[in-house]
Design a protein that fits this description.
The structure holds three protein chains of three kinds. By secondary structure, chain A is an all-alpha fold. Chain A contains eleven helices and no strands. Chain A has two domains: 1-61; 89-295, Orthogonal Bundle (MetI-like fold), CATH 1.10.3720.10. The longest helix of chain A is centred in the N-terminal third of the chain and has 42 residues, at 2-43. Chain A starts with a helix and ends with a helix. In chain B, 35% of the residues lie in helices and 22% in strands. Chain B has nine helices and ten strands. In chain B, a hairpin with a 2-residue loop joins β4 (55-60) and β5 (63-64). The longest helix of chain B has 17 residues, at 177-193. Chain B is globular, with a radius of gyration of 19 Å. The two termini of chain B are 33 Å apart. Chain C is an all-alpha fold. The chains are: A mainly alpha, B alpha/beta, C mainly alpha. Chains A and C meet through α1, α2, α4, α6 and α7 of A and α3, α4, α5, α7 and α8 of C.
């Protein structure tokens, strides 16, 4: 019995010790966290904001104003008739043109960014770039690019290149390069080394090694990632317009500024539809690519 | 005394347990043997009501437990402890908390939510762990222990429930021979010292022969043998294992029995 | 190589030596068409080399002007703005977590077994997930006026559907065995969640929340540009007046903060694992 009770005393001693440490840690953690949280809510004026007496009512009113005043009997009439679809989408040709411009921006930026990312990925893959300093520099640069939000970069580039799609394309291309460069280099490092050795053994140069040893292995994965990025870039291109970097975003901004909330909804639906179509197309291509990769 | 009357379980079209009746006294260590899929696990889970029987009655000391619900059902589960093949501990909780789960049902809601247990509970948990030589690991996470150690923790948890009946579903199937022996010894000790019936599913005939006071053999959901280990002849085994186990291919020492 | 060998090779592998001209032609045509389409798009977007060059020239001037970076005597204000951005991110993440938690539990297949209900619930979450925080911010800033409040709600609204889905999946992926073990001890359903499920899913959820905090810190900087205050607003102001020494200073400071937050969150996540 003395043995078993000694087990209990030993445990209780150990428990007190552990508990004291744990409680201290938990207490400190909780204190710090709640202090930060409190300050955060205070700083973000979450509770002190003057949001009117009836915030939900205001959102409701806002949403209500987004719903266009369509009339059933005049639905298919021309744009001068109040309540028709054409009246709601009163500037449709311009929006479609800007929408197409947005798509073009996304595609061009994805292509440019993918090419840039490809070059960068070879420079920072451990199995393809022997010089550590180069790998380090390229990696850090890509990381820095990924940290910078697109919209901030777009603001700077709009100042340099002027308002228009050029600034938007460069912004998206740079940020695409940042993310694809990292993903591509991860793919590169998974390349089967036996094939590379085989190439080296048969006396192939660096370029030939990449062309025949690496590219065939990684191409399907590359394309798949680039297509996913294309989907993201389309939403990105639509948003960039808000700061004047081309595309349909400028119209969204205008609609908000002139408090044409029904127009805002109209353009938003257009963008969502556009993204939806590109998503479907890109998914179809990706599925075919994956199927291709398996059958090989 | 545990009594089963015509207990049946169907999963869709398959008959998992077919009209099983047997009873079991205090102090008995009953081994249930049979091929996998014979309905052993389902039978045990029905006693504990983790699975509901399709038909039949299960009673404990004359009281029907097969139709219990809610609080009464939880009360019954507390009285019959269950030990699982995969231990079923929470790997991220420490060992002592895993053991104390055995008394959670009897403690106030608020303190249980906070994982707070009175010192008396902790002392009991440590004593149960110590009896299985596991008190040293009380503050470790259960997931860091070996399989044999985890099973001992699971037994300590079962003991903290102060069970009137212990069910063990393949408790040694995932363990190496040394640990299997430790765990079976513990079950045997529980059966003798606390005078509770222990029902244990086993796939190893050798272990069943060595530890059990009585063996129940199942085939295709029905009981095909019920008696002392000595009565387990080759003829019976042929029926249980449907001729699949000839002395040459038997993984366990059936030869000496035959 | 003599003619006999060639003939033999042809016999063994006809495709290898006689490349399908049709396929080659198609491949070439596709490549040319893609290149032409690309060029046409560039032209349509007026990506003229001249404007690219002049733009990069201006960018060079900006960069030259930005050296050495300077805080413009406004360091306290910049730090406060950074803190405000972090505050928005944290407040948004906490609110999103609080709302997403019950939604995630309801959305888990193992909790709500009804398949139709589950399908409808998940689909509606999917639909809302398509709306990025920037779009929410535009709506909310015009509804509530300028200030971080709209930004916080925008971040939360954008996170809730994704977090709820991740929470549901965490619950669905939880191991059933510990739950069975706890139930067998006769505990109530609430206690079964506390001792069987929570220890498994809470660390997973916490790590996901930390990921969202990181990404919200980035998004919060963007929301400032559309009027939600914080560092984005300070940046926009300075870009507008071409004060690039201060722009570079702020961006550098911001990047350091992002890296620091990522490091803290990563070490926390490692401790959770």
């Amino acid at each position: 019995m003395s043995e078993t009770s000694s087990a209990v005393t030993a445990f209780e001693a150990l428990r007190r010790q552990t508990l004291r440490r744990q409680r201290l840690q938990t207490l400190a953690g909780l204190l710090i966290f709640s202090a930060i949280l409190l300050i955060s809510f205070q700083r973000s004026q979450f509770f002190s904001s003057d949001i009117g007496d009836d915030p939900l009512g205001r959102i409701g009113e806002f949403l209500n104003r987004m719903i266009p005043d369509l009339k059933g009997e005049a639905l298919l009439a021309d744009s001068r008739t109040e309540g028709s679809l054409a009246w709601w989408y009163y500037d449709l040709p311009r929006w479609l043109r800007l929408g197409w411009q947005t798509v073009e921006m996304a595609i061009v930026a994805t292509v440019l960014g993918a090419v840039g990312g490809l070059l960068a990925s070879f420079l920072c893959a451990r199995n393809l770039m022997p010089i550590a300093a180069v790998r380090f520099t390229v990696r850090r640069t890509l990381e820095a690019i990924r940290t910078l939000p697109d919209l901030v970069l777009a603001l700077i580039l709009v100042a340099a290149f002027g308002a228009g799609p050029l600034a938007g394309v460069i912004t998206l291309a740079v940020s695409t390069m940042g993310s694809l460069g990292k993903l591509f280099s991860e793919i590169n490092e998974e390349v089967d080394p036996r094939q590379l050795e085989g190439m080296r053994a048969s006396g192939a140069g660096y370029a030939a090694m990449i062309r025949y040893g690496v590219v065939p292995q990684v191409l399907p994965n590359y394309t798949s990632y680039a297509l996913i990025r294309l989907e993201g870039n389309l939403a990105g291109a639509a948003a960039l317009g808000i700061v004047g970097a081309g595309g349909i975003g400028i119209e969204l901004q205008r609609a908000i500024t002139y408090t044409e909330f029904d127009t805002y909804l109209a353009i938003l639906l257009l963008i969502v539809g556009m993204i939806f179509l590109i998503d479907i197309a890109s998914e179809a291509i990706r599925h075919r690519l994956i199927g291709l990769g398996e059958s090989r | 005394m545990l009594e089963l009357h015509g207990v049946t379980k169907r999963f869709g079209d398959t008959l998992a347990v077919d009209n099983v009746s047997f009873s079991c006294q205090r102090g008995e260590l009953v081994g249930i043997i049979g091929r996998s899929g014979a309905g052993k696990s389902t039978l045990l889970r029905m006693v504990n009501r983790l699975t509901d029987p399709t038909d039949g009655h299960i009673s404990w000391d004359g009281r029907d437990v097969s139709r219990l619900n809610g609080a009464a059902l939880r009360q019954w589960r507390r009285r019959c402890a269950m030990i699982f093949q995969q231990f079923n501990l929470c790997p991220r909780l420490d060992v002592i908390t895993n053991v104390l789960v055995g008394v959670v049902a009897e403690r106030p809601l608020a303190s249980s939510l906070m994982k707070f247990f009175p010192a008396a509970d902790r002392a009991r948990a440590i004593l149960e762990l110590d009896a299985l030589d596991m008190a040293h690991a009380a503050l470790q996470r259960a997931g860091t222990l070996s399989g044999g150690q985890q099973q001992r923790v699971a037994i300590a948890r079962a003991m903290l429930q102060e069970p009137e009946l212990v069910l063990a579903d393949e408790p040694v199937a995932s363990l190496d021979p040394v640990n299997a022996e430790v765990v079976m010894d513990a079950l045997q000790k529980i059966c003798r010292e606390r005078n509770v019936p222990v029902i244990v599913n086993l796939h190893s005939l050798e272990i069943a022969r060595r530890y059990c006071t009585r063996i129940v053999a199942m085939s295709k959901g029905a009981i095909v043998f019920d008696g002392p280990p000595a009565g387990l002849t080759q003829t019976v085994l042929d029926r249980v294992y449907a001729g699949r186990m000839t002395p040459e291919t038997a993984p366990f020492s059936i030869v000496e029995a035959a | 190589m003599n003619p006999g060998q060639l003939a033999r090779a042809r016999q063994v592998a006809p495709e290898a030596l006689q490349p399908s001209w049709r396929r080659r032609l198609i491949n070439w045509a596709l490549t040319v068409a893609a290149a032409a389409a690309f060029v046409a798009m560039c032209v349509d977007l007026q990506l003229a080399p001249a404007s690219v060059l002049s733009g990069f020239g201006k960018l060079g001037t900006f960069l030259a002007n930005s050296m050495p970076p300077s805080d413009g005597g406004d360091l306290p204000r910049i730090l406060v703005a950074l803190a405000e951005t972090f505050a928005m991110a944290l407040a948004g993440t906490v609110i999103a977590t609080l709302v997403a938690l019950p939604l995630g539990v309801i959305g888990a297949k193992t909790v709500v077994g009804q398949p139709v209900l589950h399908f409808v619930f998940r689909r509606s979450l999917d639909w809302f997930r398509g709306v990025p925080s920037l779009v929410w911010a535009l709506i909310l800033v015009s509804a509530f006026g300028l200030g971080p409040f709209g930004g916080v709600i925008a971040l939360a609204l954008a996170d809730i559907p994704s977090l709820a889905k991740l929470f549901s999946e965490a619950i669905e992926n939880a191991d059933e065995k510990p739950l069975d073990g706890v139930r067998a001890a006769g505990v109530s359903p609430l206690m079964a969640l506390r001792y069987g499920l929570a220890p498994q899913v809470v660390p997973v959820m916490a790590s996901q929340v930390l990921f969202f905090l990181e990404s919200n810190f980035r998004n919060a900087a963007v929301l400032g540009i559309v009027g939600a205050g914080g560092i984005g607003f300070e940046l926009e102001e300075r870009i507008r007046i071409f004060a690039f020494d201060q722009v570079v200073f702020i961006i550098g400071l911001y990047m350091i903060c992002v890296a620091a937050l990522d490091m803290v969150s990563q070490s926390l996540r490692q401790r959770l694992a």
